[in-house]
Structure formats: structure tokens, C-alpha cells
Amino acid sequence: MQWTLVIPLKPLARAKSRLSDTAADGLRPGLALAFAQDTVAAVLACPAVRDVVVVTDDQLAGRELAALGARIVPDTPAGGLNAALAHGAEVVRAARPETPVAALNADLPALRPLELSRVLDAAATLPRAFLADAAAIGTTLLAAGEGRELSPAFGTDSRARHRASGAVELTLGAVDSVRQDVDTGDDLRAALALGVGPRTAAAAARLLIPGQ
């Protein structure tokens, strides 16, 4: 099964505010872009992925991610994360109604293509499925099989919200890179320990991170 992944990305100037204790205001937009670039590059290298749609209104991010091979869709609803994901899924399904679609966070800089493939292969056996983040509170991936609605419920306590929506939680081992999103300095240290992509490594080298 070949998946289309939908990745939302807010304007870089407003991204990663929770990294303020680790990255200065002037560095966070570049760091957020690096996360997204390494995420998209890894997704496109995944054998289970057909293509990637990035929902964003950020012009710089759109240009850079399109250069990697992503399709850029404007955030027409401008209604937040879940509205952006639903819109992206609708755009995909308008052209290919039966395409399996998965939503993925844009801040997975340690993402490994083969680990993502394991997650998507497991999701392919279920109507809707999700993967909890490393903190076991949020969600990094939500998948909807052929003809199924994505019905995203990202945000606070999204693990519980997706489970309540009827999506099945995937309990796979050895997929840490798919779980490790980056919101805080501790998250970034954990991602660096796993091994991040080249753009994030270059951006993080400009930060003073104890234990890096």
C-alpha cells in the first residue's frame, strides 16, 4: 500500500515558541524549517509513501519543501492544525478518493524512513490508526485507510482524543524516530541523541545545548 502523507506547518515566525529557553527568537524560524525539511526528506525516502502534501502559508517553507519534492497546499481554512489537516486530506481525496492518507507532524527531525514504513504497514491493516508521541500524551501520526475519513483531533491530549474517536493505537517497538517530535529543549536533546537529519544538525550546532 502506498500512502499520501499530509504534513501541516504553521508560519515559521510563529513556530516552536516552546523552544524559547533553548533557541533565541531569531533562530527558531530556521530551526522549525530545518525540522520540516528533514522530516519531509525522510518521508519521501520511505518505501511506503507515494507522495507528500504540506499544508502551509509560509512562502519560504513552501519553496524549500517543494524543492525537496513535496506538493504545497495553501492553508485555505486558516482554522488551526486540525482544519489544515482535514483540508489537506480533502485535496488529496478530491483527485484520488480511495488513497490512504496519514497526517504526520512536521517536527520529526530524527525520522528514519524504514521506521516510518513499519508504522504505515501496521496502519494499513486498520481503518484508522495513530501513533502516540514519545511523551505518551500527544500524537505524531494519524492514518486513515482507503475511503476512510481522517478526522484529526490533534492538540492537547490528542492521544486520548484519537483513541476516543475510534482510531486504534499502534503499539510498535523500535519506532522511536517516528515518536520523537520536538516542542521543548529536552525533546531536541532526545532527537539529537537519536540522530537528526543534516539540516537540523546544522541548525542545532548554532545553539548552546548542554549534553549535545
Any descriptors?
alpha/beta; 7-stranded mixed sheet; 8 helices
Q: How would you portray this structure in words?
A:
It is a single chain. By secondary structure, the protein is of the alpha/beta class. The protein has a single domain, classed as Spore Coat Polysaccharide Biosynthesis Protein SpsA, Chain A. Helices cover 38% and strands 16% of the residues. It is built from eight helices and seven strands; from the N terminus they run E-H-E-H-E-H-E-H-E-E-H-E-H-H-H. A seven-stranded mixed β-sheet has the order 3-2-1-4-6-5-7, sandwiched between helices. The mean pLDDT is 95.
Q: What string gives the helices and strands in order?
A: EHEHEHEHEEHEHHH
Count of separate structural domains = 1
CATH architectural arrangement:
Alpha-Beta Complex
By secondary-structure content and strand pairing, the structural class works out as alpha/beta
- What is the name of the CATH superfamily? Spore Coat Polysaccharide Biosynthesis Protein SpsA, Chain A
Short characterization:
The chain has 212 residues and is α/β, with parallel strands linked by helices.
Could you give the topology of this structure?
Elements: E1 3-8, H1 28-44, E2 49-55, H2 59-68, E3 71-73, H3 81-95, E4 101-104, H4 113-123, E5 128-132, E6 139-144, H5 158-164, E7 168-169, H6 176-179, H7 185-194, H8 198-204
Parallel strand pairs: 1-2, 1-4, 2-3, 5-7
Antiparallel strand pairs: 4-6, 5-6
